[in-house]
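Posting for a labmate who doesn't have an account.
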Amino acid sequence: MQTVEPIRDKLLIQAMKDELKRESDRNYFLFVMGINTGLRISDLLPLQVRDVRGQTHIVLKEKKTNKAKRFLINFELRQQIDHYTIHMADEDYLFSSYKTGLPIQRVQAYKVLNKAARRVGITNFGTHSMRKTFGFWHYTINKNVALLQDIFNHASPDITLRYIGINQDIVDQSLASFSL
């Protein structure tokens, strides 16, 4: 199984957005929601317009953990939601298949995101990279592993740091100039 990584470069995040926007609003918005909420793909795909339109929080039960999750929709994300859903009905799925109207499958989400990632030069990318990207940047900005651990429902700070790739970055940095 391939280990996926967060996107650590904001220019690459913007390149992904640009690439996906050229392709479709749905795929662009999936990426934007993923990197701004840190929700797992299994929790993003079944969301309906009513779950986010006019809401201050996304409230759901996580598929993997079966735990309740309440996530604030910040002002910028709320604007993105309003723009994306303006012509959609409340019962529409946010990320619906163009053929069936049902939510796209995880495999389809992987294909469109991975294809865009390859085109902009990102390797080791999968749907989980969105969650890891959220975590990496949340930690980079806030430096609060306990808070991120709580957001991710992880059992320990070590798991959270390893998950977002911070441990490996720290190890690599410590070894870069180490010489005897």
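Reply:
Got it, the structure tokens are right above this. The longest strand covers residues 57-61.
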